[in-house]
Specification:
Length: 220
């Protein structure tokens, strides 16, 4: 029940965002321009074109939503962070170098997580991947409103990002294969701008989730 409510954005925000992008694609294709000077034959041709483009848009919507739905979470995470480590991979050693949260101090973390730091000192592999250690703490507080809210926002941004990345090749391939519409450079620029914005947002929110879990745990 918790997981289903956490990801209810897939039935709301995610679909509406995709529909908005499809609508912008239709607008950029200039297929809705009917002039009063057009004769009946031109009007019929344009209506036929509009129907074809709407059908084309429906295909893009279905394919994009399906591919995004079956995409594994680890790939979506990789698309966000690319070749950088996830915040959870080095969170405990990062706190020692620089604590980016004023809700707790380095001394608080060292005292509370002494056993974790001992494990990291004894196992060199843990210096590069501390996600499992952080996840144990997350599981204790996943129902906390602060943790839940920030995690939901991160997952939404992550999925919006992967959905937009998926939309680009599907749009280009289907446009070139069908010839119903020409590829709009302006629309592609818009999509790439959204990818960058969503990537930054997902990175920031992902880091916020990591620190929220520890702040809640340390002040519990």
């Amino acid at each position: 029940m918790f997981l289903s409510s956490l990801k209810d954005y897939r039935n709301n925000e995610l679909k509406w965002f995709l529909l908005a992008n499809i609508l912008l694609m239709l607008i950029s294709s200039n297929v809705f321009s009917l002039s009063l000077d057009d004769n009946e034959l031109k009007i019929v041709e344009k209506i036929g074109t509009i129907v074809s483009v709407v059908f084309f848009s429906a295909i893009i919507y279905v394919y994009t939503f399906i591919f995004d739905s079956v995409m594994p979470s680890n790939i979506k995470v990789h698309l966000v962070f690319l070749f950088c480590k996830k915040p959870s991979d080095t969170i405990f050693t990062q706190i020692l170098r620089k604590c980016n949260d004023d809700r707790f101090t380095v001394e608080d973390a060292k005292k509370q997580y002494k056993e974790i730091y001992d494990q990291i000192d004894k196992n060199s592999k843990l210096k590069e991947n501390q996600t499992a250690l952080w996840y144990e703490i997350y599981n204790r507080h996943r129902d906390n409103s602060i943790v839940y809210g920030s995690n939901r926002d991160y997952l939404l941004l992550r999925d919006l990002h992967s959905q937009t990345v998926t939309l680009v090749p599907i749009y280009i391939i289907l446009a070139l294969m069908t010839g119903i519409i020409t590829v709009s450079i302006e629309y592609l620029i818009y999509l790439f701008c959204m990818i960058i914005i969503l990537n930054i947002g997902a990175r920031v929110q992902g880091k916020r989730v990591i620190y929220n879990v520890l702040a809640v745990d340390l002040n519990h």
